[in-house]
Amino acid sequence: MTITRFAPSPTGFLHVGNLRTALFNFLIARQNNGEFILRLDDTDPERSKQEYIDAIKYDLEWLGLTWDHEEQQSKRLDRYVSVAEELKKSEKLYECFESPTDLDLKRKKLLNMGRPPVYDRSALGLTNEKKIMLRKGNNPHWRFLLNNNRVNWEDTILGPISIDCASVSDPVLIRADGQFLYTLASVVDDVDMGITDVVRGSDHVTNTATQIQITEALSKSTPCYSHHSLLTGPSGENLSKRLGVMSLRDLRSAGIEPMAILSHLARLGSSQPGELFNSINDIESVFDITTFGAAPTKFEMQDLYPITSKYLSSLNFSEVKKRITSTEASEHLWDVVKQNLITLDDFQYWLNLIVNGVEPLVDDLDRDYVNQALLLMPSAPLNEQSWENWINDIKLTSSRKGKQLFLPLRKALTGKEKGPDMSRLLPLLQKIPKQI
Question: pLDDT grade, residue 426 (50/70/90)?
Fold first, then answer.
């Protein structure tokens, strides 16, 4: 059975980069009738917060990315202790006593010598007597002893990967304060939960090499790895919250529709053209992770607005009715204005327009013309022929043609230069000014 996982750290809110990883793992599981696990990487007690856990779940549910079961690493600490003891007995975990300052000095020295800043394994040379003495004043941190072989795997996206572990520092798996770090906890969880496919960002490639070695040290088989490209800003800069709207909660507040986000991320960075999907099932039916490339992928929030607009225009009133609170809303009004909505919040503008009218948008040069035209407004009740009849009557008394004729009228009645078909909108207006 295919089993995937999404393992966010509840130390902040989900952003589009996180979501891309979650979506890919979700789709692979669903395509293969497998399981999708939500695994909360909350081994850092100081930074992990319940509010972030709640927000992560809310965001995933809002997007329709339902998980089959949930795990929390903070509830599995005893298991990590057990595996750590196993690795210590096999001499794959060794204790180190260098302070952060000591390590920083070593790194700088190696860099100054033009050498890669790889940990020198000096802790392996400590005698038992020296270790006993050092333990009196310091808690050790524990490193995994990598072999110096190359680690090779066939990455679903990147192709053949080969990492020379001689150029990689032995990773710290347990901090001096006893906290288990991601590298160990993730491997243990993947092994115990039977994870078959791991999809994550390309910044984890080197980390994957060390995790493969840890997995092999536990005599377990490794999952299939896929490393997708990282999202960047419009100019290729690293994606970060400094660029503006990033978190899913911000996108939600901006009125972006879930299917717009999912549709965009399901194709962004792939060889397939962008496409609006109406459901996650539709995405699942055509998703192909092998079509994604390795190059950094530009993400622009503005791209989500036209997709949201197109999605809204495809909906029936019954599909949005529960999200519109006003009792004045109707299926007819929705059908008239839905092609002109950028976000659902825009519907409120048109609803307010038909009930209360709006502040006219009239240029000084058009004011006399508009007032003369309003005198020719057909009598109520208006219908879908009233706009054309009105325009024809105006033509008899005005030399204006084309946009010069009808655009000032649209602006005066709707407060906008663009909008729905006036033939359909005019009969809905409950308040039409007699003069402006």
Answer: very high
Would you say residue 9 has pLDDT above 70?
Answer: yes
Which residue, among 43, 33, 2, 7, has the nearest Cα to 22 in the 3D structure?
7
Give the pLDDT band (50/70/90) at residue 295: confident
Contact assessment for residue 48 and residue 222, using Cβ atoms and an 8 Å cutoff: no
Q: Do 1 and 27 touch, CB atoms closer than 8 A?
A: no
> What are the helix (H) ranges across 288-339?
304-313, 317-320, 331-337
SS3 of 113-175: CCCCCCCCCHHHHCCHHHHHHHHHHCCCEEEECCCCCEEEEEECCCEEEEEEHHHCCCCEEEC
**How far is Cα 168 from Cα 213, in angstroms, rounded to an integer?**
12
pLDDT exceeds cutoff 80 at 236? no
Q: If you count DSSP H runs as helices and E runs as strands, how many of each does the chain have, helices first?
A: 18, 12
Q: How far is CA 154 from the centre of its chain?
A: 26
Tokens of 43: 């081994």
CA distance 165 to 339: 57
pLDDT at 176 over 50: yes
Would the pLDDT of 194 be above 90? Answer: yes
Q: How far, in Å, CA of 6 to CA of 40, rounded? A: 8
Quote the DSSP letter at residue 54: H
Q: Which fold has domain 1-70+229-314?
A: Rossmann fold (3.40.50)
Percent helix, percent strand, percent coil in the chain, to nearest 5:
50, 15, 35
The predicted model scores a pTM of 0.92
Q: Is the omega angle on the peptide bond into residue 381 within 30 degrees of 0, that is, cis?
A: yes
pLDDT at 234 over 90: no
Is the pLDDT confidence value at 241 over 50? no
Residue 88 vs residues 78, 92, 134, 149: alpha-carbon distances, Å: 15, 6, 18, 21
Residue 96 bridge partners (DSSP) = 141
Report domain extents, the chain. Answer: 1-70+229-314, 328-428
For residues 24 and 435, give the distance between their C-alpha atoms in angstroms, rounded to a whole number. Answer: 58
How confident is the model over 327-341, as a mean pLDDT? 96
Is the pLDDT at 412 greater than 50, yes or no? yes
